[in-house]
Amino acid sequence: MTVVAGDETWRADSYVAAQFTRSAVSEDRAAQPLPTFGEWWEDRRRAALFSVEEVPFRELDGWKSQSGSDNLVHESGRFFAVQGVRVESETHGTWSQPVINQSEIGILGLLVREFGGVPHFLVQAKIEPGNVNTLQLSPSVQATRSNYTRVHGGADTRYLKYFRGGGGGQVLVDSLQSEQGAWFWHKRNRNMVVRVTEDVPLHEDYRWVTAQQLRRLLGVENLVNMDTRAVLACMRFAAPPRHLPAHDDPYLRALCRSYDPVNGTALHTDVEILSWHTEMRTRCDWHTSLVPLAEVRNWRRSGSAIEDEEGRSFRVIGVRVRTGNREINQWSQPLIAPRGTGLAAFLTTSVHGVLHVLVRARPEPGVMDTVELGPTVRRTSETDVAEDEPFHAEVAAADPRRVRFDTVLSEEGGRFHHAQTRYQVIEAPDGFPTEVPDDFCWVTVHQLMALLKHRHYVNIEARSLLACLHSLW
């Protein structure tokens, strides 16, 4: 194993967490003030030459329906395929659906460099075919293996060398995590933060921002993309300093205490949480397997879409893309298109003055270990509503004054078409019970961050909500 040592101080986890927090509270020490971000963003938006057209499957260049299975596959055998997944369960019955099978592990990476002693992160204005607004804020590198090995014959991925060991950077975060288990089969990405000390040539689509600026931008609808949120969630922050105005608000004061690993007031120990999670995985009787798309039941296929017969889930569509701002200028591909806006919500409450978040052990057909920790309430689309779901009523009827975060943010625009989720962090009413159903558990923010040392423990929606929690103080 080759390790780039870097500064000895940066090799201590506690120091890295403190530096991330320093960046998160240094609004007046940013290399470029936040008001100028809007000017840069508008300039990038005007320069974005991009068109997306929905087309029949037969017009997807380089894609074909595989003989015998009906799977939608790329002629190179790379990128991804649309096929079927079957779930068999004694408690939930047997059912099947289309799923994206993308076995390659991609890289989601943020470069970090200090300016004026404050860590800044390199983000990019990136176009994706499924984005509802074309352009969103992406990590320094966001690339599948097929992309960065140039299977498409396009240009090199900028800044890739820093995340592949050839740039002399120091790895601060490197976490292998899942993506949407409702739509992907065993999809994983490497979430990385790499520190550099040298000058980095800056392309016009890229910009250095502090964690404080990223936290503020999270409140803007459909701006910070899913991949940036995923990397942010894998960064461990130290407890925010006590001089922040947030400490004047009892809720935010409890939130800040929730970052402290030694406050001793967590409702459950780390071992209890890990044991509970293991028990939930053991109890789950779902058996999942890939099947040919031709064997998926209760879905119909036309020349332009694959959709469930009840019209409640999602569609698979084809698109043709033209752009002057990507590694290649035009391509075609399938996308999953959810029906309307989904929901992901955390209920939170203060226990002994420390904020706790209510997570749920949630099975999904596409995750590797079947069960990961997710939001308190989650639905993938507007039609995916289960009114008898625990805590659905509490979220739906929440007092607006207790809704601490409420923003519509996009899911992965490279595979999903206009997939939006309303992310909410809600303060539970006074006296809310800490006794919850077996598949729910209260955790502190520090405990949730610590779980991300493990792979496949916390799902992508819960990780997005963790990033949203970081934006509140």
TrEMBL record:
InterPro entries in the record: EvaA-like, EvaA-like_sf
Protein name per UniProt: NDP-hexose 2,3-dehydratase
Lineage, top ranks: Bacteria, Bacillati, Actinomycetota, Actinomycetes, Kitasatosporales
Family annotation (Pfam families): Hexose_dehydrat
Domain dTDP-4-dehydro-6-deoxy-alpha-D-glucopyranose 2,3-dehydratase: 37-235, 271-469
Organism encoding this protein: Streptomyces malaysiense
GO MF assignments: lyase activity
